[in-house]
Each structure stands twice: as structure tokens, then as C-alpha cells.
Specification:
The structure holds two protein chains of two kinds. By secondary structure, chain A is α+β, with helices and mostly antiparallel strands. Chain A is built from nine helices and 20 strands. Chain A folds into two domains: 230 residues, Rossmann fold (3-Layer(aba) Sandwich); 103 residues, Nucleic acid-binding proteins (OB fold (Dihydrolipoamide Acetyltransferase, E2P)), CATH 2.40.50.140. In chain A, strand 16 and strand 17 form a beta hairpin. The chains are: A alpha+beta, B mainly alpha.
Chain lengths: 353, 302
């Protein structure tokens, strides 16, 4: 339905060298991003990393100190929020409490003085798409968190924005519902083919939803890539730890590999540093009773954590975390062989651990 | 006593005991209201139907003449004087409230935007006039509006008043005095609401292409309605009966219903007529509040 129209209005978004300071605190420090048309792009980072500030600058709710914002090649840096072809789903949803769900969704169209018939058509379509028909006449306070979130989505999408901005839209939902909504959101975005930019501190959310994501820290973008790229090849120890779990092993470069407290580890590539860190995901470590050919480490299981889908084992030396499937139970205190295969070891760029 | 025990905020008690204690606690307040509101109100109604004696004393002859007089009918035919005064009072109270509201919004946003510390300083500045007696404050305007002061000179220069005359008594001085008296009554409750505004709603409205007027009516007004209502009622009701300000700053030509009532109970010694006017004022105030409630609800759900 209306596929042509939707691809037509579909635009990407570019941020060029955006800087923003609040007093002495640099919220954004030379951020450059390129979001492709129709992409689900996520800004991931801990609180205070500047991701929300960047979103607000894109929305026009905050003014950048320097830099440019472009949608579809058009410079919108100087445009106020009401003139931007972007709409936002707010963290608190910010639904108008005195208006019904229908009127909330119709708000943007009414602001732009659409004819009543057109408003009815468009609002009806979005309300149906997000399964809100039965709530149309209710007020926001009568809705659950998940329903409110869908109203906020409908209210933004009804305006057919070039870019939809989502500011931690799942943070008010409980864990179970959140997982469901993440998948729904992903499907909705695929169906619409519209550009979505999501802000979140939840790495699982970022992995589930995004086509590409940007990991941010202290106002800077540290790494941009597909979820697989970033998860498999974290650029530094911050990304490795923030996105999933990681064993960080302090290392010294020696011919053919690195020397660590676990002993010599062979690597496929030569590290660019003398001293640094290599990382390995807990689920990438193989565990067995026989000594592997390369990078075998004798270790003792010190602690077992049951996680339902798997066990997390903590092993000495090196306080390594290893993830094993839950049907293979290992007793604490047992000696095992670990294989930290060279192709699974990631050489991190940074010096700060 | 077969009363079942019940838990009242963690205390185990019975219904009867609670009722007894509740009425005991309510007693002082109820007594106060009965003694100083219900009884006098009743007396006022009775007196308004009594007759004025030759020397100003009350004579208990039932009559509706006082109300007829208020409506303008007298021995000498119909006159609009009293109705005009009533109407003028409504207009003055309405305009005073409106101007106070219009002035309060920017003031409240200004104060709410200050740092936490200076906010209290600004609020104190709003409250300070309360420390001075109303009559003295009204007299203060005499000085400010005196012929030697810049405002009067400017008005004279622009041709509004003859050179060398003060800017009072007139309607302008009454409005000036009224607004300055009642502004804090709107500002303080409104500020309490403005301080708690959820700015995300304002941003959401802007994000959804709302014009500044639409942002105000849809995102700001509904959120500040509670404080605004209190402010409007606190201003409109006493403004309807105000007599100090119009007496001093309005002169005889700008009489309000408050002055009229004061005159009846004072110099004219016509208590029954004064009581009838009071009743008229009360009815008008009620009508005003009723209209406001109806309109207020409409605004809230537009």
C-alpha cells in the first residue's frame, strides 16, 4: 500500500562534525555520521555519552555549537523543530493528557491544517497499523505502557517523517514486553522502509533492532558498523565490554603472538602496539578435556552461574568467563583445557582497559 | 459494642470511634463557618427584605423594595445607575483578572527559568507588597501618579490630561491599582503550576509542527490549568467586591459595587439596601464562577 509514496519521501541523514557543549562539559565532540535512506540506525552508549543530545540536535530541540545536519542532502541545521521533516518518539512518550488517543495521533496533521477527511484517513491507517482501534477514544492515562508507546509511534509516523527519531522508547517497559516490542519495532521499520534512528543504552536492543549502530562514549563516536561487525570486531575495550561480555587479556607483543598471564597466545595478525589488550567473547572459548593444538590453557573452574540458556563459568587463572550450553554441566573445582583459538582473539586498539 | 475492628492508617479502631473523633476534629472549623459565614449570610438575606427606618434603623416590615431599587426602579422612575455600577464592577473584575493572568504567565516563566537560588529571591519580590497595608499601597499610587512624576508628565505631553494635573482619579488609575493589588494572587498559584510543567509535552508539540499559539493552548495551558484556576478565582471574587482602590483612585465618578455597599452600611445608613446589593454581588460572582467553570472545561478539552 502506497509503497511508491513511501520510498519517495524516504531520506537518509547526515551529521557532519557536530559539536555541543553544556558549560564546560563537551556533550558532543566532532560527531560525524551517515545514516542511509531506509536504515534502522542506533546510537548506543551509556548515559551521558551524548546520544540523546545528538538526537535532540537532529530533532531541532537543541542547537549545535558547530557542525551540520542534512536530510536527503538538504541542510536543516538552522531550521526550528516545527520545520524539520523529522518526528520524535519521546522517552516519556509525552502524550497530551487532555486529548484522546485519536486526537493525539491527529495532532501533527491538525497543526499543519490538513483537511478533516485526510486527517481521518491517515490517522485511521496508523491507528489500525499499530492496533489501537479500540483505544481511539480513550485518554492516555487509561493506557498501559506498551499501548502508550504505540500511540507515540503512531503520532510520529502519521506525519510521514523522512526520519523517525526514537529516544529510548523502551526504557519504561518491563523486560519481557521490551523484548517483544523490539522485534515489533524492527518489523514495523522493515515494513515501512523508513529511516529510523534509535537512541538506547541497552545493547541487546541495539543488536536486535539495528541495521547499523554507532557506539558512543564521552561525546564521541567510537565505532560504527553492523551489529555483527561491531560485536565480532570491537574496536576497543570499551566497545568490547559495552556490547556483550568480553574477556580482556592484558598482553605484550612477542613474535607470532602475545605473552599474557595465561601464557603465550598465538595470533593471526600482528598487534599494532607493544603492550595492549586482546579480547575474546565467553562463548568463543572452547572447553574440553584434551589439550587443543594451539592456544590451549589449563584452567580450574572456580564458579558456576546458571543462566537458563547457558552456564557462565568463571575460571582461574586470569578470571576468565566462559559460556557453555546448559546441558553440559561442569563441576566447580574441576581442571579443564580451554582453547582460545587465534581466529577468535580480537586485537583491541586502545590502551585504556 | 459489636463493632468490627478496622485498620485506619495502621491503627486498629472501630467505625464508631472514628466517627466520634472525626466530628470532634471537624467541630472548630464547622463552628467557625456557621458563626461567620452561614449565620451572617442568613442575616444578610433577612435584612435585605427589611425596611429602613427614618433614622437609619432597621424596621421589620417585609419589602422587596430594596431589590427594586437595585434594579433601578424608584419613586422618580427608572435609572440605570445601580445596574451600571454592578456591570462596571463585573467588567473591572474581569479585566483585572485578565490583565493579571496575561502579566503573570511571562513572569512565572521568567522566575521558573532562573537558578534555584534566585528563584526564591524573585518570588519574595512578588510577595513583598503583601507586607504593606492595602490602603497604604493605594496611597502610594498617589505619589507615583502625581503631576510632578514622569508618568503624569508623559501623559500630559501626549495630551491625555491637562498639564500639571495628576493621573488620578480615573479608570486608568483604578485598573493600575487593582492589577497591582491582585497580580500576586495569580502569579503565586500559577508559578506553582509552571514550575512543574513537563517540558517534554512542549517539545512534543513543537516536534508536531504546532504554532506558538497551539503550543500554548495544547501543551502549556492544560498543564497550568490548576494554578491558573486558583489564581483566577482568588482574583475575580475579591476584585468584584473591592472598594479601597476604586474609592481612592477612582473617585466618585468611577464607583464600584464595593463602594456602593460600603456607602449603604456607612454614611447612608441604609442597611437593607446595602444587604440587597450584597446579595446582587454574590449572585453575579456565582454566575461569573459558573461561566468560568463551563468555559474552563471547554478549554481543557479543545
Amino acid at each position: 500500500m502506497n509503497q511508491n509514496h513511501q520510498t519517495q519521501t524516504n531520506q537518509g541523514l547526515t551529521a557532519k562534525h557536530v559539536c555541543k557543549a553544556f558549560g564546560k562539559v563537551k556533550a558532543l565532540d566532532d560527531v560525524t555520521l551517515d545514516v542511509k535512506p531506509g536504515e534502522f540506525f542506533t546510537l548506543l552508549g551509556p548515559s551521558g555519552c551524548g546520544k540523546t543530545t545528538l538526537l535532540r540536535i537532529i530533532a531541532g530541540l537543541e542547537l549545535a555549537d558547530a557542525g551540520q545536519i542534512l536530510t536527503g542532502g538538504k541542510d536543516i541545521t538552522g531550521l526550528p523543530a516545527i520545520k524539520r521533516p523529522v518526528n520524535t518518539v519521546f522517552q516519556s512518550y509525552a502524550l497530551f493528557p487532555h486529548l484522546t488517543i485519536y486526537e493525539n495521533v491527529a495532532f501533527g496533521l491538525r497543526s499543519r491544517k490538513f483537511p478533516e477527511a485526510e486527517i481521518k484517513k491517515r490517522v485511521g491507517r496508523r491507528i489500525e497499523m499499530l492496533d489501537l482501534q479500540e483505544m481511539a477514544d480513550r485518554h492516555p492515562h487509561q493506557l498501559s505502557g506498551g499501548q502508550k508507546q504505540r500511540v507515540a509511534l503512531a503520532r510520529a509516523l502519521v506525519n510521514e517523517p523522512d526520519v523517525l527519531l526514537l529516544d529510548e522508547p523502551m526504557s519504561a517497559l518491563d523486560a519481557r514486553l521490551r523484548a517483544q516490542v523490539q522485534e515489533d519495532l524492527r518489523r514495523l521499520q522493515r515494513k515501512l522502509g523508513r529511516t529510523f534512528i534509535l537512541v538506547t543504552h541497552d545493547q541487546a536492543e541495539a543488536l536486535v533492532c539495528s541495521d547499523r549502530l554507532a557506539v558512543m562514549r564521552s561525546g564521541r563516536v567510537i565505532q560504527i558498523g553492523t551489529p555483527e561487525q561491531v560485536y565480532d570486531n570491537p574496536r576497543d575495550s570499551f566497545v568490547a565490554k559495552f556490547l556483550g561480555a568480553a574477556n580482556l587479556i592484558p598482553s605484550k607483543r612477542v613474535p607470532g603472538g602475545v605473552e599474557t598471564e595465561l601464557g603465550f597466545l598465538a595470533l593471526d595478525k600482528e598487534p599494532p602496539w607493544e603492550e595492549g589488550t586482546v579480547a575474546i567473547r565467553p562463548e568463543w572459548i572452547r572447553i574440553g578435556d584434551e589439550k587443543p593444538e594451539r592456544n590451549g590453557i589449563r584452567a580450574r573452574v572456580s564458579e558456576i552461574v546458571y543462566r537458563g540458556t547457558n552456564f557462565d563459568l568463571w575460571l582461574e587463572p586470569g578470571h576468565l568467563r566462559v559460556r557453555t550450553s546448559s546441558y553440559k554441566r561442569v563441576e566447580a573445582g574441576r581442571e579443564v583445557w580451554l582453547e582460545l583459538a587465534p581466529q577468535e582473539l580480537v586485537i583491541l586498539e586502545d590502551d585504556h582497559v | 459494642m459489636s463493632n468490627p475492628l478496622l485498620s485506619w492508617y495502621g491503627e486498629l479502631t472501630t467505625r464508631n470511634r472514628l466517627l466520634k473523633r472525626g466530628s470532634l476534629l471537624l467541630m472548630p472549623g464547622m463552628l467557625w463557618l456557621i458563626l461567620f459565614l452561614v449565620l451572617p449570610g442568613f442575616v444578610l438575606v433577612v435584612v435585605s427584605f427589611a425596611t429602613r427606618g427614618a433614622y437609619g434603623q432597621l424596621e421589620w416590615t417585609f419589602t422587596v423594595e430594596n431589590y427594586q431599587r437595585l434594579a433601578g426602579f424608584s419613586l422618580f422612575g427608572w435609572t440605570s445607575d445601580y445596574l451600571l455600577i454592578l456591570w462596571r464592577s463585573v467588567v473591572v473584575a474581569f479585566v483585572t483578572t485578565l490583565v493579571s493572568v496575561v502579566l503573570s504567565y511571562p513572569l512565572c516563566f521568567f522566575i521558573a527559568g532562573r537558578s534555584e537560588r534566585s528563584r526564591y529571591m524573585w518570588l519574595t519580590l512578588v510577595i513583598i507588597p503583601f507586607w504593606t497595608n492595602m490602603v497604604i499601597r493605594a496611597y502610594a499610587w498617589f505619589l507615583i501618579l502625581a503631576p510632578e512624576m514622569p508618568i503624569a508628565k508623559l501623559a500630559a505631553f501626549l495630551g491625555f490630561i491637562p498639564a500639571g494635573s495628576p493621573l488620578y482619579p480615573n479608570a486608568f488609575a483604578v485598573y493600575l491599582g487593582m492589577v497591582s493589588m491582585f497580580l500576586p494572587f495569580v502569579t503565586l498559584p500559577l508559578y506553582a503550576s509552571v514550575e512543574r510543567i513537563d517540558w517534554a509535552l512542549v517539545e512534543a508539540a513543537q516536534d508536531l509542527y504546532a504554532s506558538p499559539i497551539r503550543v500554548f493552548t495544547q501543551a502549556v495551558l492544560p498543564q497550568t490549568m490548576p494554578g491558573l484556576s486558583v489564581g483566577i478565582i482568588l482574583t475575580f471574587v475579591p476584585a468584584m467586591g473591592m472598594f479601597v482602590v476604586p474609592d481612592l483612585l477612582g473617585g466618585a465618578k468611577y464607583m464600584l459595587v464595593g463602594n456602593l455597599i460600603q456607602q449603604q452600611f456607612g454614611s447612608s445608613r441604609d442597611w437593607p439596601f446595602g444587604a440587597a446589593i450584597s446579595m446582587g454581588l454574590m449572585v453575579l460572582t456565582m454566575i461569573g464562577l459558573h461561566i468560568y467553570r463551563r468555559k474552563g472545561k471547554e478549554i481543557e478539552y479543545v
